[in-house]
Amino acid sequence: MNAFVLAGGQSRRMGRDKALLVVDGYALIEFMLDKLRRLGLDPRICGVRSDLARFADVVPDNFSQSGPLAGIEGALAVSDSELNLFVPVDLPGLPAEFLRWLMVRAETSRSVATIPRYGDRLQPLCAVYSRRLLEGLRESLVAGRRKVMDGIRASALDLGESIDAFDAECIAATAPAAWPLQPPLAAWFRNVNTPAEYDALNTIAGAKSRHPIS
Question: What is the CATH number of domain 2-205?
Answer without folding.
Answer: 3.90.550.10
